[in-house]
Amino acid sequence: MLLSTWTKACINPSEPPESVKSELAKINKRQDDLIRFIRHFEETQLNPMVKVTHAISVRFDTIMKNLGTKIDSEMAASRENIQSILKKIDEVYGSQKELMQDVSNKQNLLYHYQKDKTNQLFNLIALYADLASCGLTDWKRKERLKEEIDKLINSKP
């Protein structure tokens, strides 16, 4: 490897150096060639890559900001839609809740009315049974039972 480096640099170790000045000139020329190569590589390769990378990052930042703004606006619109839907559901279920409570109250009233009427009917049946079981001689009891039956039929709950 050392030999390949010497041959590329045009250095022959078996030959004595001509002069220090000429050797320094060769080294300076070699340094200048390297610097020119680096500058040329930088201009033709690195600077365009840096410019393209910068342009890509600027576009990416712009797209991300726009996307963030769009997502925020979509989220706000979605939040408003959800709130309006929830309000409508609350209104519907609120009215249905009132309706169900009204129906429940009416059913309770109907149940109690029916229960009272059923008890009244059972009392009438019991009184008619007593009346039917009365003999011919129990006319006072029959009269009293007939009066109770009349009161029970004519009474309003």
UniProtKB/TrEMBL annotation:
Matching entries from InterPro entries are given as:
BfmA-like_N (IPR048012)
Q: What name has this protein been given in UniProt?
A: Uncharacterized protein
